[in-house]
Amino acid sequence: MHPKSDGFLESPLYVQDVSASARFYAKIFGLHCGLSCANLTAILLVVGVMDLRAMVAVTAVITAERLAPAGRQAARAIGAVVVGAGLFLIVRAVGLG
Questions:
Q1: Domain locations in the chain?
Q2: Is-contact 78 60, C-beta < 8 A?
Q3: CA–CA distance, 20 with 39 (Å, rounded to integer)
Q4: Which residues 6+ apart lie within 8 Å of 19 measured at CB?
Q5: How far is residue 49's CA from residue 42's CA, in Å, rounded to a whole number?
Q6: What percent of the chain has pLDDT over 90?
């Protein structure tokens, strides 16, 4: 059966040049991966890149997000904890607590 017969070649996802297709999907995957970890990377930069405890904590959090069966719920829980910690640090810096 020829691929043309089922409309596959008209699909916007079909690219005849395999290397161009691979580069396209590599860029999409890299962008998704970078953006999904950008917030935790920013936290690591603020806390200290060379702080081993911070590196271990961020690595564990990213691993939990990726490998948890309910990844979205894990990400939301991690986000809530990070926001809570940020609010605590703000209150402490202002001197209210």
A1: 15-94
A2: no
A3: 30
A4: none
A5: 10
A6: 11
Q: What is the pTM of this model?
A: 0.60
Q: Which of 81, 40, 46 is closest to 62 using CA atoms?
A: 40
Which contacts (CB < 8 Å, 24+ apart) does range 33-41 have?
36/65, 37/62, 39/79, 39/82
Looking at per-residue confidence, does 80 or 49 come out higher? 80
3 state DSSP class of 11: coil
Q: What is the pLDDT of residues 24-66, one digit of tens each?
A: 888 888 888 888 888 888 888 888 888 899 899 888 988 888 8
